[in-house]
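Lecture notes, structural biology module. Today: joint structure prediction for complexes of two components.
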Amino acid sequence: MLGLDPGLRRTGYGALFMEDGRPRIREAGVLATPARGDLGRRLQGLFREVDGLLRELRPAAISLEDLFVHREFPRAAIALGQAQGVIWLAAAAHRVPVVALAPGAVKRAVTGSGRASKAQVQAAVRTLLGVRRVADPHAADALALAYAGLHRLRGRA
Amino acid sequence: MLGLDPGLRRTGYGALFMEDGRPRIREAGVLATPARGDLGRRLQGLFREVDGLLRELRPAAISLEDLFVHREFPRAAIALGQAQGVIWLAAAAHRVPVVALAPGAVKRAVTGSGRASKAQVQAAVRTLLGVRRVADPHAADALALAYAGLHRLRGRA
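The predicted structure, tokenised, for the full assembly:
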């Protein structure tokens, strides 16, 4: 399960696998996409990075946050949609299903509460995955998404 | 110049070329993208249609509306961003520059007023391009974008 926390500047990723019935980190980090230049080039960079991850990790599914309302600016909602569109496209090209999770569902899966703070979510992720720290907060968010995605798929099975 | 008015269900397109110093319609219509199914498949359908248009028409540039604030719903802003992201990606793949135009700039280029109504814009487009009617309002919007894109590029030259 590959969690992706998209942004045009930094996209966190976190891949989990199951070992003895417990999720373990396979790989986590931040995709290097060009921070400057034409939007098309930046989206192309994001597409290539996600495409590369899908080739390398061959996840069974991708977890993405499904934001209905963006808290900050409408402009940010459009930018987020642009990055999400590119990820959906890469997923379709690899025939990898996407699990779209509401922010509350991610928090609930990880902490038990849909209203947990960002810090609580990140602390719970470290505990659940048995690691002392995750280098980047975007990667930690992506791992939380991947964890919640596994949780969702197990609930369905 | 290819104008694109994106939506996930219907994306209008309109391509103009210059003849004797006047813009003429090369082709205009609505892209057929799957209305149902997985978002990834729908975005993939949009990408393929835009990719096909770029191969066929080889436009010098693409005109897209640059919405800072979406008038309706934040959800619509994200959906619009997803469709836009796919178009920017297709443009980057073909190395076609994108001219992003604010809605007011499109209205001003076509009617002379940044506050023209949709009906005024569509009537002006028909007059400017010398046609009695345009089959689809999305195609008419795309032609207005293409016209404004030509206007912008001429202004720069």
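Point to remember: The mean pLDDT of chain B is 90.
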